[in-house]
Sequence to fold (439 residues):
Amino acid sequence: MKTLFRNATIIPMRHEAGEADVFRGSVGVVGNLIALVATSEEEVQAFCASHPNCRIIDCTGKVLMPGLINTHCHAAMTLQRSYADDIALMEWLNDYIWPFEAKQSADDIALGMTLGVVEMLLGGVTSFVDMYFHESRCVEVVERLGIRALLGCSYFDHSLEVAKADALAACERAAGCDRIRIALAPHAPYTVSREVLLASKHFAEEHHLPMMIHLSETKAELEQVAAQYGMRPVALLEELGLLNDRLIAAHCVWLNEEERATLREHGVIVSHNAQSNMKIASGAAPIAEMLAEGLCVTLATDGPCSNNDLDLWEEMRSAAFLQKLSHENPLVLPAREVLRMATANGARAMGFAEGELGVVQQGAVADLIVVDLNKPHLQPIHDVVSNLVYCGKASDVEWVMVDGRMVVEERRIPGLDLAALYREVGEAANRIKKQVAER
Fold:
């Protein structure tokens, strides 16, 4: 696999001192790695001479940048999109979501995952972190569609053993596919007991699995954990030894200064879900403070039932605007910072070292997207980064490459029958909804 992206506006997302954050040039890919980042025609010609059969993509009038990374979602919940809206969180979970999930089969979840991955790929998401059930069944979906994933096998207090079996099966099925990693994913400190959380930690350490968890998402969570254990959620996880640089903590809306310092000291990755937090009225997370204090903060959509989509472009805009509003300061969370959250920072959540993923540089993994700037909402271009973050849409993405393989070509996923997928999803959703109503 050899590809040359020519005449692009490149956004490298690198930290190198003195390097332009946007420049014109070309990018060559050999195998699954970026082999060339060039600004001169001589370098381009030399690459073409060395790789005479490479595929050439003309990117005139387009942006080439790292693929977006969605660090917390429940992709299979596409089957529940708009199923239960405008409802308080605990009623939403107890009366709608959990009863629906109880009726889903592994095949239903794989089908919902298929629709979710298609939505993300067409929107320029090249990597995602998932947290759900039957992840071992979803390995095939991820492998077939070509996206990169960290699949978290989720569970509640009563279902750790099921999640362990799912994680081991997922590891076995994902063996040999470098794009797929497996994690353990306890739902939250208020739904998983201290004893089960501790057992989770031991299992994850034994099998070298990272972990993820919903953390300090709502005031109600803080109150419930305090009533159970006499401490706040962050203190509970620290006491149990769950805080480390292989843990992704989703939401983190209700953190005080001491708790932020604790997460930073342990290297915990924070996944920010602005739109979900707004919709469920959880609150505005102190993202500006976290970033200023040195926490690694990433960006995510949450599930398509609490958002209601998997569009990381909308999430970037919302995240920036919400911080500006909640701080009453237009300077906080500028466009370049939020784009970094959705790319280079997200790569750390996926387990990659700096410079390996989420950047455009020689030697980095070739997870790349091409965005068409020739749209009314993206013109004129005073600042291309601001245009993308504040004006960009998922439908602006034309080409998507994951691990050196082109998985979206001119807004199409080769070999995929979208109409058939939509019919199958609709039939499954209606069947499950009917079963829930009859219970």
